[in-house]
Amino acid sequence: MNHFEAIIFDMDGLLLDSEIIGLKTFQQTCEEFNLEDKTDLFIQCIGTNSEATKNILSNGLGLEVDFVTFWGICRSKYHAETKTKAIPLKQGVIDLLQHIKSLQLPVAVATSTHTEFALTKLGNAGIVDFFDMVIGGEQVRNSKPKPDIYLKAVEQLNVEPSNCLALEDSENGVKSALAAGLTVIQIPDLVTPSCIIEQNHHIILDSLSEVPDYQFNSLVI
Hints:
Elements: E1 6-9, H1 19-32, H2 39-45, H3 50-61, H4 67-82, H5 93-102, E2 107-110, H6 115-124, E3 133-135, H7 148-157, E4 164-168, H8 171-180, E5 183-186, H9 195-198, E6 203-204
Parallel strand pairs: 1-2, 1-4, 2-3, 4-5, 5-6
Helix pairs in contact: 1-4, 2-3
């Protein structure tokens, strides 16, 4: 990993096991509205910011529900599980963050979550102090899969995108980091990588535990 000048992490589904909480609270809300299984609709939202998520869900649910009411209930359920409770860490998080710290590499979070909420989540999980900066989804014009948030991150870190490693779980996040010109490792969470995303030039591993020993020697950095 010392090939790189900086490391940038996504947060939900990569560092924190929060996507499964989002799915469960979404499904609970759907049940309250007597909706059929809408998991595929939720999957489209993974990796996007709040505004993009609202648009996807609103368009997908159409006239089936009063969306303002649906969204309010869904967000309340999610916040009840994530704002004051420590979200479990994904496998390998602490070891990887300590490894990066030993290399003295700058490290950031680039998340579609609002910055203040992201800081709360990372703080509750006990890992916020590992990061030099946290860039939330409200800080950029366009959500993932657009490259805006990664371009902002590398600018603030003062590194070239080609010298930076991004770690992501979602396809939207992978597309964002690749479009910005970063080397990308994907650790899939709820969704197996599609055939289309597998054709991109990025690395797919099973867990963050595999990252410290990954051989980047063949990469042109």
